[in-house]
Amino acid sequence: MINRRASAYVLSHPLAFALQTLKGFRANQG
């Protein structure tokens, strides 16, 4: 289950969340 705070943060900062996800994806890929 997704945290309510997490979903609220994503809704208020979709771009920041997308950037963070992309950064993590790139870091995992090496």
Helix percent band: over 70%
- Total tally of structural domains: 1
Radius of gyration, in angstroms, nearest whole number: 11 Å
**Total DSSP E strands:** 0
SSE topology sketch:
Blueprint: H1 4-12, H2 14-29
Helix pairs in contact: 1-2
Explain this structure.
The structure is a single chain. The protein is mostly helical and 30 residues long. The protein has one domain (1-29). 83% of the residues lie in helices and 0% in strands. The chain contains 2 helices and no strands. α1 packs across α2. The chain starts with a helix and ends with a helix.
Name the features.
single chain; 30 residues; mainly alpha; 0% strand
Concise summary:
This protein has helices at residues 4-12, 14-29.
